[in-house]
């Protein structure tokens, strides 16, 4: 970054009327314009958190603890994609620190980032013709998030892992992960591509799915507080191929099983496959964070002064 450009950026950041919302507003507007123009009924809003290590910037104030002696800040992004996985831009962005200058208000948990991300999605969805799918990994397995208000054109898709009680709607059987799989109908197999260990791989998944109600914590009444209108898609990895060489790289010990809680329809095989396909696109937000930290960007090394 040249000196003149650095000084210009520093001046913008130092302006008393400048804040994060103003800086992002134009970008979010452009993101929504691209979303409206893209082909397909759905757009995927992938949420993920990254950590910036600024320990090397000795004069930077306001940093918090990331881990041990590593100091920096946290950033949570909502990246919008089309159905083919093409990034359209950001819908929301949050920053905070732990024991630093951007600490969350007292009593607020870091898990509130999912609800704030959902609020950003709801805000844009309310004026859009598209259907939005908010997609989260296992860190988003938060009961209050399942119950949070969503606009009518916003769907939920979260990879869950916690040992909660699940009620299978068709049979009223109550069980926990992973026992639920054996009680759900088989929807065949599907191939999807994801990024694993710094390379793209193609997974072969065995699919099962069914409508479920998620029970709350034990201190709440199940009848009053259980979720409604959600389904569970279980995608068990039974094969893995390198798409470049067609080499079989499946390892049963490392095979994953996705337990995907969603409000998307699952009435048909194509519906169920759409759920896993949308979840498989989530890795794009991780690659976005990787790109910010590497190559020509290297945001952890940038400075405005």
Keywords:
IS4 family transposase; about 300 residues; Transposase Inhibitor Protein From Tn5, Chain A, domain 1; Tn5_transposase; 7 helices; 2 domains; Tn5p-like; globular; alpha+beta; 13-stranded mixed sheet; RNaseH-like_sf
Provide a compact summary of the structure:
This protein is α+β, with helices and mostly antiparallel strands. The protein has helices at residues 3-14, 20-37, 112-125, 143-147, 222-225, 269-280, 283-293, and strands at 42-53, 64-67, 70-82, 87-96, 131-136, 154-159, 166-168, 174-175, 186-196, 199-214, 230-242, 247-248, 257-262. This is IS4 family transposase.
Can you tell me about this structure?
The protein has 305 residues and is α+β, with helices and mostly antiparallel strands. It has two domains: 1-137, Transposase Inhibitor Protein From Tn5, Chain A, domain 1 (Alpha-Beta Complex); 159-281, no CATH class. It is built from seven helices and 13 strands. Helix 4 (143-147) links the parallel strand 5 (131-136) and strand 6 (154-159). The longest helix has 18 residues, at 20-37. The termini are close together. The model has no long low-confidence stretch (mean pLDDT 94).
Distance from first to last alpha carbon = 10 Å
Number of strands: 13
Poorly predicted segments? none
CATH structural architecture of the largest domain = Alpha-Beta Complex
Largest sheet: 13 strands, mixed
Please report which band the strand proportion falls in: under 5%, 5-15%, 15-25%, 25-35%, 35-45% or over 45%. 25-35%
Order of helices and strands: HHEEEEHEHEEEEEHEEEHH
* Helix/strand class: alpha+beta
Helicity range of the residues?
10-25%
Protein name: IS4 family transposase
């Amino acid at each position: 970054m040249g000196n003149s450009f650095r000084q210009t950026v520093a001046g913008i950041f130092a302006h008393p009327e400048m804040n994060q919302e103003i800086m992002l507003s134009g970008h979010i507007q452009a993101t929504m314009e691209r979303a409206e123009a893209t082909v397909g009924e759905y757009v995927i809003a992938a949420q993920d958190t990254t950590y910036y290590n600024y320990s090397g910037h000795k004069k930077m104030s306001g940093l918090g603890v990331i881990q041990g002696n590593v100091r920096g800040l946290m950033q949570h992004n909502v990246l919008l994609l089309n159905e083919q996985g093409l990034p359209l831009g950001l819908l929301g962005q949050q920053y905070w620190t732990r024991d630093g200058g951007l600490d969350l208000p007292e009593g607020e948990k870091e898990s509130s980032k999912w609800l704030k991300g959902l609020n950003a999605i709801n805000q844009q969805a309310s004026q859009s013709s598209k259907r939005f799918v908010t997609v989260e990994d296992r860190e988003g397995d938060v009961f209050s998030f399942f119950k949070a208000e969503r606009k009518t054109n916003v769907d939920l898709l979260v990879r869950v892992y916690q040992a909660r009680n699940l009620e299978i709607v068709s049979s009223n059987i109550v069980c926990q992960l992973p026992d639920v799989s054996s009680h759900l109908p088989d929807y065949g197999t599907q191939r999807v591509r994801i990024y694993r260990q710094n390379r793209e791989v193609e997974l072969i998944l065995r699919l099962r799915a069914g409508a479920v109600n998620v029970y709350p914590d034990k201190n709440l009444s199940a009848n009053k507080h259980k979720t409604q209108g959600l389904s569970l898609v279980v995608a068990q990895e039974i094969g893995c191929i390198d798409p470049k060489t067609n080499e079989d790289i499946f390892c049963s010990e490392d095979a994953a099983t996705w337990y995907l809680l969603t409000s998307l329809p699952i009435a048909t095989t194509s519906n169920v496959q759409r759920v896993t396909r949308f979840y498989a696109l989530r890795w794009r937000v991780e690659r976005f964070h990787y790109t910010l930290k590497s190559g020509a960007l290297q945001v952890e090394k940038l400075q405005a002064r």
